[in-house]
């Protein structure tokens, strides 16, 4: 898949350094909502001890994605094995946020938007994705 560097507006919001903010970054990219607004809302939803900057739990991620209007589409079931990989031929058109192992990233029209290419040359398993109805 093609890759486009995109920090979701993180640097423009005044944040520096590397961090584990993939949930905030993916939502900001997929919705075009300013990074700082998404950051503040995810922090407000986070459980005690979680921070948008260093990563949030799956439960907080699900809550945030629902809050921002996304529906979950699973691509794996228990015992099914990998059915979808992060490769152009297997990803749907449009704007989605894909859930990978320990990472989320935005994909717009089959182009990965992130601070790094998480595709592992098309071998990365996609557990599911969020899409706006």
Description:
This protein is of the alpha+beta class. It has a single domain (2-131), classed as Cathepsin B, Chain A (Alpha-Beta Complex). The chain has three helices and six strands, in the order E-H-H-H-E-E-E-E-E. A six-stranded mixed β-sheet has the order 1-5-4-3-6-2, with helices on one face. A hairpin with a 2-residue loop joins strand 4 and strand 5 (111-114). Helix 1 packs across helix 2 (35-45). The longest helix is centred in the first third of the chain and has 11 residues, at 35-45. It is globular, with a radius of gyration of 14 Å.
Give me the secondary-structure topology.
Blueprint: E1 2-5, H1 22-31, H2 35-45, H3 58-67, E2 71-74, E3 95-100, E4 103-108, E5 111-114, E6 128-131
Parallel strand pairs: 1-5
Antiparallel strand pairs: 2-6, 3-4, 3-6, 4-5
Helix pairs in contact: 1-2
- Provide the residue-averaged pLDDT: 95
Q: Quaternary status of these chains?
A: single chain
- By CATH reckoning, the class would read Alpha Beta
Overall outline: globular
CATH architecture: Alpha-Beta Complex
pLDDT < 50 runs, ≥5 residues:
none
Percent helix: 10-25%
Q: Which radius of gyration do the C-alpha atoms yield?
A: 14 Å
Which structural category fits the helices and strands? alpha+beta
State which percent range the strand residues make up: 15-25%
> Biggest sheet: strands, sense, closure?
6 strands, mixed
Give the count of structural domains: 1
**Beta strand count:** 6
CATH topology: Cathepsin B, Chain A
What is the topology, as strand order, of the major beta sheet? 1-5-4-3-6-2
Helix and strand run: EHHHEEEEE
Question: N- to C-terminal separation?
Answer: 24 Å
Please, how many helices?
3
């Amino acid at each position: 898949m093609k890759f486009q560097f995109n920090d979701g507006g993180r640097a423009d919001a005044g944040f520096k350094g590397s961090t584990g903010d993939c949930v905030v970054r993916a939502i900001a990219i997929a919705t075009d909502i300013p990074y700082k607004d998404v950051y503040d809302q995810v922090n407000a939803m986070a459980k005690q001890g979680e921070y948008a900057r260093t990563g949030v739990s799956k439960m907080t991620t699900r809550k945030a994605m629902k809050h921002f209007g996304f529906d979950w589409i699973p691509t794996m079931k228990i015992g099914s094995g990998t059915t979808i990989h992060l490769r152009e031929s297997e990803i749907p058109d449009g704007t989605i946020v894909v859930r990978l192992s320990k990472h989320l990233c935005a994909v717009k029209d089959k182009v990965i938007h992130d601070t790094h290419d998480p595709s592992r040359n098309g071998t990365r398993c996609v557990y599911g994705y969020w899409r706006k109805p």
